[in-house]
Design a protein that fits this description.
The longest helix is centred in the last third of the chain and has 17 residues, at 137-153. The protein contains five helices and four strands; from the N terminus they run βαβαββααα. With 166 residues, it is of the alpha/beta class. α1 (21-35) packs across α4. The radius of gyration is 15 Å and the shape is globular. It has helices at residues 21-35, 51-62, 99-108, 113-128, 137-153; strands spanning 4-10, 42-49, 70-74, 90-98.
């Protein structure tokens, strides 16, 4: 079975990253690849940052001068990816998560931080694989459905209090 090598770094000091979150992120990445029948080993990096850093990145790369919860930086396009010549794994890209924002949203949506970080990871992994929700409509519905399928399979099913609005 193919798997994802997930490189996780914590580049913030504003909030503690709870035990088990790194394992959860790895489970989420592998669950997305399995759900999508990716069919190859993959590498992805996940970086924890604070609100200030993610705001700077959002401004620099998206021209949106405000903090956000997660950013995705895909390395592939149309299913084509660079390959790590040492391992043969496809390089999917980078995920950047604001731990501060994730804590805030977990509180707002009245669910666990694990559920929030799981959601952000799955959401971002789908972006790395080419999914997009920015234009709304059918693509947004398709992506939201995939997110919930994966999260349910790994035991992070949405409860009735979770708001998925933009």
């Amino acid at each position: 079975m193919e798997k994802a090598k997930v490189i996780i770094s914590n580049d913030q000091k504003k909030a503690e990253v709870p035990k088990g979150i790194r394992l959860l992120i790895r489970r989420c990445c592998n669950a997305v690849l399995q759900e999508e029948n990716f069919g190859a080993d993959a590498e992805v990096s996940v970086r924890f940052v604070d609100n200030e850093t993610i705001r700077e990145l959002n401004s620099q790369y998206r021209n949106i001068d405000r903090e956000t919860d997660v950013l995705s930086f895909p390395l592939g396009e149309n299913g084509e990816y660079d390959v790590n010549l040492d391992t043969g794994a496809k390089l999917l890209g980078d995920i950047v998560i604001s731990v501060e924002k994730a804590i805030e949203q977990a509180d707002t949506y009245n669910h666990s931080l694990q559920r929030e970080i799981g959601f952000l990871t799955v959401h971002s992994m789908l972006h790395l694989l080419g999914y997009d929700h920015e234009c709304g409509g059918l693509e947004q519905d398709r992506m939201r459905s995939k997110e919930e399928e994966v999260l349910t399979k790994i035991g992070l099913k949405r409860d009735s209090s979770h708001y998925m609005g933009e």
